[in-house]
Structure formats: C-alpha cells, structure tokens
Amino acid sequence: MTTLPAKSFALPITHPPFSLTPLPLPSSATGGSVSNDYLAWFDGACGPVNPGGTATYGVVIKAKDGTVLLREHGYLGQGSGMSNNVAEYAGVLHILKYLSSRPSRPVTIHGDSNLVIKQLSGKWRIKKGLYLATAIDAKDLLAHLKGLGWQVRFCWIPRTQNEECDALSRRM
Fold this sequence. Notes:
- This protein is an alpha/beta fold.
- It has one domain: Nucleotidyltransferase, domain 5.
- It has 4 helices and 5 strands; from the N terminus they run βββαβααβα.
- It has helices at 84-99, 114-120, 132-147, 163-169; strands spanning 38-47, 54-63, 68-78, 106-111, 151-156.
- It has a 5-stranded mixed β-sheet with strand order 3-2-1-4-5.
- The chain starts with 37 loop residues before the first strand and ends with a helix.
C-alpha cells in the first residue's frame, strides 16, 4: 500500500451535505457493471466581490455509467485571501482528494476555469496569486495520483455545461 506524501492537503470544509466516504462501485454481484472511468466537474465562486468575498465551491463525481459518487459544496472563507480562482482550485483539489481514496482509473475532470484547466494540464505555469498555495497542493496531489497509475485528463467546458456545479458552488 502506498501512503500519501507527508504534505497535508486539508481544506476547511465546514458544510459538506454528504460524507466523503466513497460509495461502493457497482459490481456484477450487485447487478451492476464495473465502471472503468470516472467523470468529474468542479466550479468555484467568490462574491459579492472578487477578490475579497465569500469563497465556495461545488463538485460532482460520477462513474462512467452515470452513478453519482459524490455531489458536494464547501465553504472556504471570506475576506482578503479569497478569490474565484482560490475557490476553483479548492473544488478541483476536493475532487483529487476524493479520487485518492479510490482505485486508480482514467478520469476526466471538467471545469469552466480556463486558468485551472490549463495550469493543471501543464499548458500554463502556476505563477502567483491568491490561489498559489491551493494550486500547488492540487498540482502535488495530481502528481501523486499519476504516480499511483491514475490517468487524469482535464477538459475545459463552457459555463452553460457546468450549471450543476455552478449552483452547488453558490450554496451557503
């Protein structure tokens, strides 16, 4: 068994509506089929001002057959250290943390944040900003997952295709 690196990936989650305990994957014993892929979506919000508002995120993870494995929203905080990019990165980090408890499989993570998608895909460098610490945590956990055999693909989608996570990210 491989253990997570010593670095902590803790996020302050003060209002998750569901447990982070993974649901069992469908199996032939339960009448389902084993899914080979995961599909995930994330979104973040910061308002009423950005930066400096209240930062929240929403995430959804599904098995390839459409079974919802995780649907959550979280509150990060408010004030000068919060921004939309911090919230977006917190959402994708939450997905990566959840996936770390699952068997490695191919996963596609969808989001409407061009910054997060391009940076975690390696197309853009992570430079500076309020989101820097969370981005580095996400990048480190992503590298760890890839070392365990995960095949992670990031896919930018228009906001209109991310309405469920957008609504989750706006819950308080």
